[in-house]
Amino acid sequence: MEGPIMNSIKTALVLGSSRGVGKAIAEELRKAGIDAPTISSKEIDTADRASVLAFAQKHPSTDVLVLNTGGPPKKDFFEIQREEWEKYHQQLFLSFVALLQMVEVHRGGYIFLISSHLISEPKENMILSQTYRLASWSMLKALSKHFAARGVSVINIALGPILTDRLKNLTADIPALEGKLPMKRAGKPEEIGRFVRSIVEGDIKYLTGVSITFDGGLSSAIL
Ligand SMILES: NC(=O)c1ccc[n+]([C@@H]2O[C@H](COP(=O)([O-])OP(=O)(O)OC[C@H]3O[C@@H](n4cnc5c(N)ncnc54)[C@H](OP(=O)(O)O)[C@@H]3O)[C@@H](O)[C@H]2O)c1
User: How far is the CA of 6 from the centre of ligand 1 (A)?
Assistant: First the structure.
């Protein structure tokens, strides 16, 4: 059933909410009565420090912060240039550092990091992605006690294959990929959106400092 939430959550900054998983999260939060404007790479380009600082100055506080942005290409490690390391260091890590330092998340709020299942099962051709996503989660995990004392819950959402532009760009043959997945399908962005909404709307606070692998059973890890 849709309707306004019962707790005090009123505003959300969902980065990368013009498409894909971010869009689905913002749409679901809006259904819960939360002000979650669409934020594309035009509003904040996380690869550009000046853009990140300007965004943080414009949005000094929020109830929900979703750290999300575009992902890097598949690339052979030995072909990755220094400029690419620097670009994705800024895009996937330093941007989130600046936002966490500058954007206050109100007491009782939430921080979600959108990352990848590759942080626990790295792939040789996705090093640019998993290296910085793991760094971001490591930082946020360490900060989760600081945030817990302020009533702010922190959850990492480690995505498996989710049917978005990103997956279509990285995968030549989606049906062939889906045929190899445990559920014989990729995830739907709306499933992530509904998950985030259920946490926020349900006022679930004690689930914090955790990483949720959202991969339809793809991972074989026990813990
Ligand atoms: N889908 C998957 O299977 C999967 C799996 C593991 C991890 N991930 C990661 O999870 C994140 C979300 O995935 P997705 O599939 O929803 O991606 P997506 O469909 O490519 O959407 C990316 C979103 O991020 C925005 N964005 C792109 N570059 C940006 C930048 N430099 N600064 C700020 N925003 C930027 C895009 O805005 P514009 O519309 O302006 O371009 C768009 O709203 C990505 O980092 C992706 O790599 C995805």
Answer: 30
Cα 164 to Cα 167: distance, rounded to the nearest angstrom? 5
pTM: 0.97
d(CA 79, CA 1): 50
Verify whether ligand 1 is closer than 6 Å to residue 167 (CB atom): yes
Number of structural domains (the chain) is 1
74 lines ligand 1 (CB under 6 A): no
Tell me, in angstroms, the distance from the centre of ligand 1 to residue 142's CA.
24
- Residue 126 in domain: yes
Distance, CA 114 to ligand 1 centroid (Å)? 9
- In tens, the pLDDT along 170-189 reads 999 999 999 999 999 999 99
What CATH number corresponds to the domain at position 65? 3.40.50.720
State yes or no: pLDDT of 5 exceeds 90.
Answer: no
For ligand 1, say whether the CB of 72 is within 6 Å of any of its atoms. Answer: no
**Residue at 4 is within a domain:** no
Residue 79: burial class (beta carbons within 10 Å; 0-12, 13-18, 19+): exposed
Q: What is the pLDDT of residues 103-130, one digit of tens each?
A: 999 999 999 999 999 999 999 999 999 9
- Its domain, for residue 93, covers 12-214
